[in-house]
Amino acid sequence: MGLVKGVALSTRQRQRPLGLALCCLYILQLLLLLLSSVSGIGVNWGTQATHPLPPSTVVSMLRDNGFQKVKLFDADSATLNAFANSGIQIMVGIPNDMLYTLANSEQAAENWVAKNVSSHISSGGVDIRYVAVGNEPFLSAYNGSFLGITLPALQNIQSALTKAGLDTRVKVTVPLNADVYESPTNLPSDGNFRSDIQDLMLSIVKFLSDNGAPFTVNIYPFISLYTNPNFPLGFAFFNNRSSSSLNDGGKIYDNVFDANHDTLVWALQKNGYGNLSIVIGEIGWPTDGDKNANLNYAQQFNQGFMNNVNAGKGTPMRPAPVDAYLFSLVDEDAKSIQPGNFERHWGLFYLDGQPKYALSLGTTNSNGLVPARGVSYLAQKWCIMSPSASLDDPQVAPSVSYACASADCTSLGYGTSCGDLSAQGNISYAFNSYYQQNNQLESACRFPNNLSVVTSNDPSTGTCKFRIMIQSQTVTSGVEGGRGFSMSSFVTFAVAFLSAFL
């Protein structure tokens, strides 16, 4: 935006004598440039996967699907290099575990900007527009660990960008969870920032306003449904035709996203920042791992959201289209499941870059999502429970527990895509997940007492897919792909699974 202002000033100085018509032409060009700088739908790309797609493949997939913006959770050099001259605008991320260092050292902030921003912009042709400092750092799960260091980290990164001459081009923000504001009555007009962090939030809001940066917030209607069994289902979706709605002083809210968004608008307005721009850092719906996380609901939610965006529809308090990043591009099978088993299933695409469901983004001539190209797979074979093995074998329980703790069994359980499997089917799924994540090594299908065997017959059934991994480097980034929780053991889930199915 600052660069646009510079262009406008220089042309106005040079062309003033050419008359009103030419002046209007330049104003029109300026407006078009301003609009182009914020237009288009974005998407989050997290890399917490055991077999991630190559960055070049992902960049091609983003372009094929018409995504103009992408939000990252770190500043990995190989990833950023893949975006060189791609025409895609980037929000790079700084993980929470770096906030302390950046908050306490201006030099560390300058070094970070030089390595992860300046170098890629100056010589790499990477269009970095934002730096996201931290990820939902004020979640209650962190017990206040980041309360005193987030703002200083923001300030030091801002100072480093200014020193590097990039402050008009690259803006600093902090993606926050929607729990930083609240309404005691659930009416948006009663919204304000959480009382325990009110002063801190106002300091951050002032910082964002002073530096022309947006307030970035992650809003998840699915979580409302997940945490409250009495939450009205229809109110979680757009184009709600149920009786659930809110009347707030004549403004009608028929979905929770609009109500949540405008609660933030009211909080900003009450504190003197009613014009501060808002970016939706994450919004989406998972497809597995919970009874309400399925393909139908995800398609309904994301298509409803995109229909509103493409129709130019905003919220009652801000009628203009929202600026948003869908969450997320691909599934991440190595993410923490501390918030819930659904955490590994937010992708519009499966791990291999194949679309999960029909979704029209309105960005291409295609009526659906375009799959990743040139993906190579491991061999067509699976690891299953041996037909000769017994469910009563004492090695079954520890073997399944080990497989699930080491791999991904989040598609098992009540209401999930593999929730209808037999006991043998559940065991086979666990074995195969471990086998695939370990690149189909023979030793990965050698469970004790000959419990397992390799087969060339696909054991998939109904909605339950026994997936084959792609050929990829099995290196997992240490950065959470959104919803910032640390990794936790899967043993608890495995024990519960065994109790339910054996």
From TrEMBL:
SUPFAM superfamilies: (Trans)glycosidases. It is a lipid-anchor; GPI-anchor. It catalyses: Hydrolysis of (1->3)-beta-D-glucosidic linkages in (1->3)-beta-D-glucans. GO terms for biological process: carbohydrate metabolic process; defense response. Residues 381-466 form the X8 domain. PANTHER family: GLUCAN ENDO-1,3-BETA-GLUCOSIDASE BG1-RELATED-RELATED (PTHR32227). This is glucan endo-1,3-beta-D-glucosidase. It comes from Populus euphratica.
